[in-house]
Every structure is written in structure tokens, then in C-alpha cells.
Amino acid sequence: MADPKACNKKLEGKVAIITGGASGIGEATVHLFVDIGARAIVIADIQDEKGKELAASSRFRCTCTYVHCDITKEQDVELLVQSTIQLFGRLDIMFCNAGVMSKSLQTILDFDLSLYERLFAINVGGVAAGIKHAGLAMVKANTKGSIICTASIAASVGSDRHTDYVCRKTRCWL
């Protein structure tokens, strides 16, 4: 059986970026990374109020900061990675978690391509930008880090509704 104290220090000294970190899975991951010893966490999101409130939580035993980042803009992601390294001296973990699901129950016959393109930019383009810029930074610094991307079972199971979401999430599995 694993030593529980050892598990609590699994991320000791590590610096992480969590996109989509202000709510949902991202927020839960912020709490988890704090609990297992991360030194610093950068919450990257467009939900400014939630992100700032979470970063300011007195519960955290590490440095937690919020950065407004629109992952559909590659320059925002590049600046996010650069500013994290400038502030904390390193980047060990990039969790590409930001994503959205369409609000409508579209079938393939109802597809709204303008909505699809916007959500594709978030769910696929944002992930690609995160992988690219975190990867470049980690290679340059010779860091043996981790890049984690949120996917969805919808990519392999499918759905007769949320067709645009299923199509986009399939791209994350490739």
C-alpha cells in the first residue's frame, strides 16, 4: 500500500498551468494540485471573477495566481506560458482543460457551422496551442514535465445530439 504522506507530496516543488481552471474540472484540479503539494498554480481562464476569487482563496498552501487567457488566441497561450516561467522560473505541468459544450441539442442535420467553428477553436485549437507552447518551453528548459489534455468519452461513444461537441472531442483523441 502506498504511503499517504508520499502521495500528498507528489507535486512538491512543481509549477502548473490549468486552462479552464476557474470552474468545473479545472477548479477541482486546482484543489487537487494544492492538496498534493504543487508549489505554484496558474489558473488560466476567461471567467475573470471566478478565477480571481479562486486564486485568492486563503485555503491554498501554495502560490496561486489567475491570468486571463483566451485559448482561441495563440498569442494569449504563448504569453501565458512565458509569463508563468518568468514569474516562477519553470513550468512542470500544463493541463489543457478549457473547453465548452454547445448549448443546443444539434443533430448533424441541424448543424450550425458558425457555432461549430467557434467551439472547435476552443476545444481543439486551444489544446493544440497549449501543447505547442508548453512543449516548446519544456524542451528549451530540458524539463521532464507533463502535458495533460482533457478528452471526453463522447469521442468514442458518440451521440445523436450534441453532434458538434462529439466531432470536436474526437479531434482531441487523435
UniProtKB/TrEMBL annotation:
Q: SUPFAM superfamilies from the xrefs? A: NAD(P)-binding Rossmann-fold domains (SSF51735)
Coiled-coil ranges per UniProt: none
- Pfam families assigned: adh_short
Membership in a protein family: Belongs to the short-chain dehydrogenases/reductases (SDR) family.
Q: What is this protein called?
A: Uncharacterized protein
